[in-house]
Design goal:
single chain; alpha/beta; Rossmann fold; 3 domains; seven-stranded mixed beta sheet; 9 helices; 7 strands; 48% helix; 16% strand
Length: 263
């Protein structure tokens, strides 16, 4: 004897509801979430072991081949010719694994130049200080570090009542790209998002960034616009404008600073 259509639909709806509830419970289960995180973590650990096993040979090969030695931290997709391009996530075969929050795998006085572009803001202030001290240690006397990062003062200035054309253009661009659902109080949403998004930990203005390099032991500290430098080896090496598909936006939000290790 067949079920009536309405009874059958009711039964199917009840089964579907039970399935959804079980899936919802599983998604909320700390046990299941813990297993998933453990599996992902295990995969990452295996990758790191492999990367570490290959690292020493890659570093030795680079140092042997280059008399002027240049180190890039958190290179991502910006693979600079003639540089030892490193990152904590290796999405290119040529990258070398390096966790900038730990002691660098180099002897003292190894490199002539170090570049860190849009990375320092992803570290807590004290961790960034450790990174800068490591940069100082592995640089040769007279070597230079270059750090590019968003300018906190530029971001906070967006909250002013009187805005320039550049500020309005930046607000409209950022909202359209990252928060298209926002229709009102755009600058407030943008500023809040800048502190929360992309893993940002600490944003610098010029004074704080200058002090960070000075406290780490650097001298001859100078500020530059992105791409500009008095040293040809440090000119036009950043890629943030390409990632944003707008060099104008990069020029607006980014500050670059260089410091020298005393001879």
């Amino acid at each position: 004897m067949c079920e009536r259509p309405d009874t059958k639909r009711s039964t199917m709806n009840l089964i579907s509801s039970h399935v959804r509830n079980r899936k919802s419970i599983l998604r909320r289960s700390h046990f299941i979430l813990g297993i998933a995180k453990t599996v992902r973590g295990l995969g990452t650990d295996i990758c790191v072991i492999v990367w570490l096993a290959r690292r020493e040979a890659k570093i030795a090969e680079y140092l042997k081949a280059h008399s002027v030695r240049k180190l890039q931290l958190a290179a991502s997709n910006n693979l600079l010719p003639g540089w030892l391009n490193t990152d904590i996530f290796l999405n290119h075969r040529s990258l070398v694994y390096l966790d900038a929050t730990r002691r660098f795998p180099f002897d003292d006085d190894t490199f002539d130049y170090i570049l860190s572009e849009h990375m320092i803001e992803h570290l807590a202030y004290e961790t960034a200080q450790f990174m800068l001290r490591e940069c100082l240690r592995v640089l040769k006397p007279g070597g230079r570090v270059r750090v590019a990062t968003p300018d906190l003062r530029v971001i906070l200035a967006l909250h002013g009542h009187e805005k320039t054309k550049l500020q309005n253009n930046y607000i409209e661009w950022a909202i359209a790209r990252f928060m298209p659902e926002v229709k009102e109080y755009k600058e407030v949403h943008l500023i809040n998002n800048f502190f929360r998004a992309w893993g940002h930990q600490f944003l610098y203005d010029k004074e704080t960034l200058y002090h960070a390099l000075s406290a780490a032991g650097f001298d001859e500290i100078e500020f530059y616009k992105p791409g500009a430098s008095a040293d040809p080896n440090l000119q036009q090496i950043e890629s943030h404008g390409k990632e944003l598909n707008s060099e104008d936006i990069n020029q607006f939000e980014t500050i670059a600073i260089e410091g020298r290790k005393q001879r």
